[in-house]
Structure prediction request, 222 residues.
Amino acid sequence: DAGITQSPRHKVTETGTPVTLRCHQTENHRYMYWYRQDPGHGLRLIHYSYGVKDTDKGEVSDGYSVSRSKTEDFLLTLESATSSQTSVYFCAISDRGIEQYFGPGTRLTVT
Amino acid sequence: AQRVTQPEKLLSVFKGAPVELKCNYSYSGSPELFWYVQYSRQRLQLLLRHISRESIKGFTADLNKGETSFHLKKPFAQEEDSAMYYCALSGRSYNTDKLIFGTGTRLQVFP
Prediction:
């Protein structure tokens, strides 16, 4: 597996609380991505980064923000979690922006 | 619009039977297509990409531009092939290639 870790791996939180998920890579890849995986929807891109401090929105970015202050870390923040954000979140990295390698996922439950 | 369609949510076969997981795409331009596999509670892994024209774990996939399809095939299914399979399209944008995923097909191989 490519050197990608996600933390936490599981989290239960209450509606309205802020949540930050972390993706850490040791591959020095330029591109990083956050997806959510939901039954019937497959994987949908939330935000992505093409370099330090360079980020852009994906397909389902509402309610999410990201930050990338270092090459190795890409943070996903839910400012005020809602039940619709209960999902499995995957981080991915890519060297040339084509083939992507995925992290182990974070299972988030918002009650 | 760029789109990936996997018409089957679930495909069930017996061990030794042939398997074909369907994938159709919509893309104006020259697409790059991939198959990713996710075994139970594991991270997504790249299985195949059309430009490499290789066979991995007995699976092959041929890009048919006339039918805009990239179906995944295996002549003899094995129980260990049971997993979730995602077809993905690389949609090149200014700064990065973003993957557009289908909704996935769950393959169940019975003994």
